[in-house]
């Protein structure tokens, strides 16, 4: 199926007659946002990186300007599946109508700018705040047809179960909270301290070391617990992986695709809380990622982690030596579309179809490091069966010395050998994890 590209409507701010300073500001923002969207579309680079580069080059913007541009830009991506339909209306300024509608859907605080966009576009975006986003946009544009499934690209539905399409699309169009994990300190005490500092911290009811810091951006370096390595940012769904690994004190583990080390740190913290941290080797093909891991480990005071970069197809560690091996494989990252809404429109089906062969290869090679009786855990942040269960099934079929092990889904209570965490189940990212063991 074809890629669902971002097709921006033409926009010429100089051709628009304005009657107030407010409309002048609104047009300036509109012009900047149109250029940013165009640059992101053409460059196929993540929106957060493009925006960061833009702010570095244009230091004239104050904090309010940066917030308006940032939140409007990501709102456009979140709701693009609906907003692009506005190009078919009879308004002469569909781009301004899109901006005004995005602000309406997310209740942005800059309503003066939003109303200026709407006025210049000749559209009415007044809608009941209590109504659902679908009801609100349908009320504003009654001649158009909207549905939740359109909030994700058409190609995605080839790989995902559409029976829960509305729940999935709705959850992926909401801003995610900031999930975190404590290391070596009392979580409830830290929650109380953070609340006293004005941060809406709430303890997780599922994991005793997890908490959420609310939805607003936070300068983490202002938090002593973060500076001291006692607080790590890690999505709740990602934390499920460490819980399924269930490392025992003193075991030897290998994190094969460690990245910046979030799960390595989690495995260390979980085992240390039970008496003794695991001895952990972290590997990745990216030296800079391992450097960041080491930095985070030093900040947390962890001395049990060593790095072993992948330098070739050969294993960077000894075979049949580890009690546990975690393969958090490279994937399409469709489970993180809440945090990266631009990627659903910049990627295409190849983001999924290109991965399974590589994932199976990494899983197969990494399995050589598991000793008899040891544990092999496969994980992705993908929502596609092709990258998840299909890869595990293919591995088990080709490697009969391994067998699946059941785990309890932390949010449904079901016992499963393969766990998929859907974003709407725990207000989190999407994640997949499966646990296996090497038979004697």
UniProtKB/TrEMBL annotation:
S-adenosyl-L-methionine binds at residues 284, 328. Its EC number is 2.1.1.-. SUPFAM superfamilies: S-adenosyl-L-methionine-dependent methyltransferases. InterPro entries: MeTrfase_RsmB-F_NOP2_cat (IPR049560), MeTrfase_RsmB-F_NOP2_dom (IPR001678), RCMT (IPR023267), RsmB-like_ferredoxin (IPR054728), SAM-dependent_MTases_sf (IPR029063). Residues 166-439 form the SAM-dependent MTase RsmB/NOP-type domain. Pfam families: Methyltr_RsmB-F, RsmF-B_ferredox. The active site is at residue 381. Keywords: Methyltransferase, RNA-binding, S-adenosyl-L-methionine, Transferase. GO terms for biological process: methylation. The keyword Methyltransferase applies. One of its GO terms (molecular function) is methyltransferase activity. It is an enzyme of class 2 (transferase). Belongs to the class I-like SAM-binding methyltransferase superfamily. RsmB/NOP family. This is RsmB/NOP family class I SAM-dependent RNA methyltransferase. It comes from Shewanella submarina.
């Amino acid at each position: 199926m074809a890629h669902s590209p971002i097709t921006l409507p033409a926009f010429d701010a100089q051709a628009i007659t304005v009657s107030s300073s407010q409309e002048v500001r609104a047009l300036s923002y509109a012009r900047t946002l149109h250029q940013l969207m165009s640059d992101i579309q053409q460059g196929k680079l993540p929106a957060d990186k493009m925006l960061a580069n833009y702010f570095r080059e244009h230091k004239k913007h104050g904090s309010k300007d940066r917030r308006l541009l940032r939140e409007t830009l990501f709102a456009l991506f979140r709701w693009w599946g609906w907003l692009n339909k506005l190009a078919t209306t009879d308004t002469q300024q569909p781009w301004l109508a899109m901006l005004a509608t995005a602000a309406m859907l997310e209740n942005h605080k800059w309503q003066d700018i939003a109303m200026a966009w709407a006025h210049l576009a000749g559209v009415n975006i007044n809608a009941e705040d209590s109504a659902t986003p679908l009801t609100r946009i349908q009320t504003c544009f009654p001649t158009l047809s909207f549905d939740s499934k359109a909030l994700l690209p058409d190609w995605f539905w080839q790989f995902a179960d559409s029976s829960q399409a509305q729940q999935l699309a709705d959850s992926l169009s909401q801003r995610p909270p900031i999930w975190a994990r404590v290391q070596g300190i009392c979580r409830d005490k830290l929650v109380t301290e953070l609340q006293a500092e004005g941060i809406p911290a709430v303890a997780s009811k599922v994991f005793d070391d997890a908490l959420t810091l609310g939805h607003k951006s936070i300068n983490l370096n202002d938090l002593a617990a973060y500076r001291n390595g006692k607080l790590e940012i890690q999505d709740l769904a990602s934390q499920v992986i460490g819980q399924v690994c269930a490392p025992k004190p003193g075991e030897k583990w290998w994190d094969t695709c460690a990245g910046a080390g979030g799960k390595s740190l989690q495995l260390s913290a979980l085992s240390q809380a039970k008496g003794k941290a695991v001895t952990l080797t972290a590997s990745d093909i990216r030296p800079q990622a391992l450097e960041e891991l080491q930095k985070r480990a030093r900040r947390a005071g962890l001395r049990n982690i060593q790095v072993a970069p992948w330098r070739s197809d050969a294993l960077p560690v000894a075979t049949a030596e580890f009690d546990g091996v975690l393969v958090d494989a490279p994937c399409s990252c469709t489970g993180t579309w809440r945090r990266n809404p631009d990627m659903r429109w910049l990627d295409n089906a190849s983001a999924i179809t290109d991965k399974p062969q590589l994932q199976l290869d990494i899983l197969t090679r990494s399995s050589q490091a598991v000793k008899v009786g040891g544990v092999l855990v496969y994980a992705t942040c993908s929502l596609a069966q092709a990258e998840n269960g299909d890869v595990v099934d293919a591995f088990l079929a080709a490697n009969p010395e391994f067998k699946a092990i059941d785990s309890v889904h932390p949010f449904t209570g079901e016992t499963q050998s393969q766990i998929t965490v859907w974003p709407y189940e725990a207000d989190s990212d999407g994640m997949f994890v499966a646990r296996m063991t090497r038979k004697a």
